[in-house]
Amino acid sequence: MATASPYDSRPWLASYGEGTPSGLTPEFRDALAMFRASVARDPDGDAIRYFDGRITLRDLDELSDAFAAGLLEEGFERGDRVALYLQNVPQFVIALVGTWKAGGIAVSINPMNRARELQLLLGDSGARVLVCLQGLWRDVASDVVPATDVRLVLTTSEREHQSRDDPRAFAGVEPPELPPGTVDLAGMLRRHRGRTPPPVEFGPDEPAFLTYTSGTTGPPKGAMNTHGNVVFNSQTYREWCGLGADDVILGVAPLFHITGLIGHVTLALLLGAPLVLFHRFEPSLAVDTIRAERPTFTVGAITVFIALMNAPGADREALSSLTRIWSGGAPIPPSTVRAFASAFGHYIHNIYGLTETTSPSHAVPFGADAPVDEASGALSVGVPLFDTVVRIVDDEGRDLPPGEVGEIVTAGPQVVPGYWRKPEETATALPGGALRTGDVGYMDERGWFYVVDRKKDQINAGGYKVWPREVEDVLYEHEAVREAAVVGVPDEYRGETVKAYVSLRPGRTATADELVSFCRERMAAYKYPRLVEVLDELPKTVTGKLLRRELRARDR
């Protein structure tokens, strides 16, 4: 355990409540051991619910055994990589666990990636096997795979593991024919079901999966999330959020993303709790699914909860079961937290982490309300989690005292050892094993942390520094604003000036001039946006992060 410091969570946790744990001892050596323990406890309990389909823990054990047996029959070796190019479908979980049982490393790939991006990730990871939806094979992967090291392509359909009768699902949609040059995943599982692959164990330092960074500062890099990282942060979610086998997890985050991988999949494997999947997030479908499945916990981007607030049929009764909610991946306006609590009676707890921290490094404890900084209006992202030490440093790497803004540097058992086959990038981002996050923030006197913005997003308006996050938080206070993203755009006089892009709530109206005036009344003269543009939808990543770089490109 790291030594105590002003940035350690232990002093804060001690003041939060008597008996609150400050350390977390890993119960398992690897992620497979977590799953095996859950199967042994309750083999007939639900592991996955997908529309009206159910997969028990026993089923998942047998199906993942079959997947591993099929890979091994094809010459798969320990340490080989399996790329998962899928939406939120049960096959993702089956293939993930099956990859581990075959001794392999999973590579999660965004299903929105197109040919150039897919080829880059397959090439960088050296994946030998690709598991993908039939439509993604037809539209993207079939043109890419011949130029890669992939030797086996397993295709599958969204229709697997659910019946034709559920009106929420793909009613009346026939699965396409098996694409030429691929192997039917369902057929392989049927052929090998009942076979048990040789037992395998992993050391805590061996990679469980590669998760690729978004590439905002260069080509995407494969973070090596180890089995030790995965076990630690799966347990972190369980302990911090107070979860158990009786809970039901709603899968709103994409499973390829680190939030979905840990906060949905491996958490469910650890708990032996049902994971509710519904292909991909759509607000009305999400409301129907919550009403039907009564999930108790979820974690996702704040845009998910904004969408739920505006979804038809969303009311207190529909969302009454969802009592434990965390949100991360994008800044959370305090006004949105208040509006959601007013509408549904549930508080959205902030959580913060990166791909390289295997999901959370900070979070707001269940039952606590995050403070709001009076000066900036920023909502705290929480306090450092178990055994996690966080420093705020200046440009020279020197520690800064509470209240001073600098770069967030994180060290702890959830931090990855590095990037796949990229020693130089690893040395730059993880000197001494501590992660230079690239996020700018500060800690207050009580130990609460605040994220100001990404270093690269700072706007220099005539020599004055403006953080987009602060302007966005003010815009969210306007009753008509649904989403807001602020960027710096070229300006002949100031060098850069502040521009806001907004989308509006259904049935509400607001002019650009009205929004400029609204901000001018509430902010220093150099901060408020001189330009506002209203769009029907703001561009986002599949995980719900607003894409400021796409908005900046509109004005270059």
Query: Average pLDDT value?
Result: 89
How far is the N terminus from the C terminus?
48 Å
Helical content band: 25-40%
DSSP, total strands: 25
Strand content: 15-25%
What would CATH call the class of the domain at 458-553?
Alpha Beta
Which helices and strands, and how do they pair?
Elements: H1 9-16, H2 31-41, E1 46-50, E2 53-56, H3 57-73, E3 81-85, H4 90-101, E4 105-108, H5 115-125, E5 129-133, H6 134-144, E6 152-156, E7 183-184, H7 185-192, E8 207-212, E9 222-226, H8 227-241, E10 249-250, H9 258-271, E11 275-277, H10 283-293, E12 297-300, H11 302-309, E13 324-327, H12 334-344, E14 348-354, E15 359-363, E16 383-384, E17 389-393, E18 406-411, H13 423-429, E19 435-443, E20 449-454, E21 459-461, E22 464-466, H14 468-475, E23 481-491, E24 495-504, H15 512-520, E25 531-534, H16 548-553
Parallel strand pairs: 1-11, 3-4, 3-5, 4-8, 5-6, 6-7, 10-11, 12-13, 13-14, 24-25
Antiparallel strand pairs: 1-2, 8-9, 14-15, 15-16, 17-18, 18-19, 19-20, 21-22, 23-24
Question: Can you tell me about this structure?
Answer:
By secondary structure, this protein is an alpha/beta fold. The protein has a domain at 458-553: 2-Layer Sandwich (GMP Synthetase, Chain A, domain 3), CATH 3.30.300.30. The strands form six sheets. It has a seven-stranded mixed beta sheet with strand order 7-6-5-3-4-8-9, with helices on both faces. Strands 12-13-14-15-16 form a five-stranded mixed beta sheet, with helices on both faces. The N and C termini lie far apart (48 Å).
